């Protein structure tokens, strides 16, 4: 009989610890754009090559099409928040939880509502002119 382990996995526990550290760092450094940009750059720099290329591209696209969003980390993910500090869009590296693809995700504050069904995340395998255009359109809409 296989024994089930209740609670969070090691990766999930590590993510929760990382989030607590982020909150402490934000409190200490303030919630400035500069502090957020630094945290995002550090998070991206720590990624394996495949994830880093995607994250750098997402960061560039967000900066271009939604400069009003403030960069910050969220559970270790590069993310971008509205003026209320609520995460609108984030990038989850495939290496974070050893998944087969990276994810571009949108939180509840993203303005993507479209009837009874709308997108909240995409698997991202590569940045091509076509995928970059689609990402830019979704981020622009999400940011309002």
What count of helical segments does DSSP give? Answer: 4
Largest sheet: 5 strands, antiparallel
Cα Rg: 16 Å
- Give the helices and strands as they follow along the chain: HHHEEEEEH
- What overall form do the CA principal axes indicate? globular
Structural class: alpha+beta
Low-confidence stretches: none
- Beta-strand residue fraction: 15-25%
Average pLDDT rating = 90
Helix content: 40-55%
Number of strands: 5
Distance between the termini: 52 Å
Structure in words:
A five-stranded antiparallel sheet has the order 1-2-3-4-5, with helices on one face. Helix 3 crosses helix 4. It is 45% helix and 17% strand. Strand 1 and strand 2 (77-81) form a beta hairpin. It has helices at 10-29, 33-45, 49-65, 129-143, and strands at 70-74, 77-81, 87-92, 102-106, 121-124.
Could you outline the blueprint of secondary structure elements for this entry?
Elements: H1 10-29, H2 33-45, H3 49-65, E1 70-74, E2 77-81, E3 87-92, E4 102-106, E5 121-124, H4 129-143
Antiparallel strand pairs: 1-2, 2-3, 3-4, 4-5
């Amino acid at each position: 009989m296989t024994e089930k382990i209740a609670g969070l996995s090691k990766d999930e526990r590590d993510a929760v610890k990382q989030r607590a550290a982020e909150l402490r760092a934000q409190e200490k450094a303030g919630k400035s754009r500069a502090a957020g940009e630094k945290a995002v750059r550090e998070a991206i720099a720590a990624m394996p090559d495949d994830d880093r290329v995607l994250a750098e591209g997402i960061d560039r696209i967000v900066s271009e099409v939604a400069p009003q969003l403030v960069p910050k980390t969220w559970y270790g993910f590069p993310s971008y928040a509205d003026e209320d500090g609520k995460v609108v869009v984030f990038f989850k590296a495939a290496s974070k939880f050893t998944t087969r693809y990276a994810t571009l995700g949108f939180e509840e504050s993203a303005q993507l509502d479209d009837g009874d069904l709308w997108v909240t995340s995409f698997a991202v395998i590569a940045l091509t002119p076509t995928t970059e255009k689609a990402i830019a359109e979704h981020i622009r809409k999400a940011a309002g």
